[in-house]
Design goal:
alpha/beta, 7 helices, 10 strands, 6-stranded mixed sheet, 4-stranded antiparallel sheet, 2 domains, single chain, Rossmann fold
Length: 221
């Protein structure tokens, strides 16, 4: 594949925090249909990298390209084609699950309540639609956030520890959803402290891009 066909490309990405370089000269290309796990020990910059890719942080040097152009040039298009779930659920606890989804759905245009209710049902939250989120468990809050994946139209999914607080069935259900998204032509970039069972999973290890490292790239898991 050529550079122009990459959905997302990183060129010489470098990030320094507290006078310490987390990663340097990070070059990578991500394509539609890929699932990529970001690996590295604690403090290697996994969450920082995802925040940079999601546009939450601009504390970096280098370039990020979307369809071959700088994300600064295609800011609106990039934002509309991106779904980011951070380490925390990102759920407003004073609202109900349905109200939270209405707010997120409004960001991508109108989504009928019937579709939002179906999304909650698919993450096993049927019957909790109108329950204030402060009454839900940590696992249920995570499921509220993950319900966004059901109706999202974004091609790029950036997920930081999405399996946190999920039980075994929830983990399997989420793995299947991420696999289906990649097989449908989407791109999944994910961090996880537990094993991920994806076919053709690729690995980006940030240790390969530590300050003194000269080796790096994507590999198959």
């Amino acid at each position: 594949m050529t550079a122009a066909s990459a959905l997302l490309e990183l060129r010489n990405l470098t990030c320094e925090r507290d006078e310490r370089i987390l990663f340097a000269r990070l070059n990578a290309r991500f394509y539609a249909g890929q699932a990529v796990q970001i690996l590295g020990p604690n403090g290697s910059g996994k969450t920082t990298l995802l925040r940079i890719l999601a546009g939450v942080s601009r504390d970096y040097q280098g370039e990020i390209l979307f369809h071959g152009k700088s994300i600064a040039e295609l800011a609106w298009e990039f934002a509309n084609d991106l779904l980011y779930l951070g380490h925390l659920p990102g759920v407003k606890k004073s609202l109900t699950p349905l109200e939270n989804l209405r707010w997120y759905a409004a960001l991508q245009g109108a989504v009928a309540d019937e579709h939002l209710l179906a999304s909650l049902a698919q993450v096993n939250l049927a019957g909790y639609e109108d329950t204030p989120c402060y009454q839900l468990s940590a696992g249920q809050l995570r499921r509220v956030a993950l319900a966004r994946l059901v109706f999202s139209k974004a091609k790029i999914w950036i997920l930081d520890e999405p399996f946190t607080a999920l039980d075994k069935s929830g983990i399997t259900q989420l793995e299947n959803r991420l696999i289906a998204h990649a097989e449908a032509g989407g791109l999944v970039l994910v961090t996880s402290h537990q094993d991920i069972h994806f076919p053709q999973l690729q690995i980006l290890n940030l240790q390969d891009f530590a300050e003194n490292s000269t080796v790096g790239g994507l590999s198959h898991g």
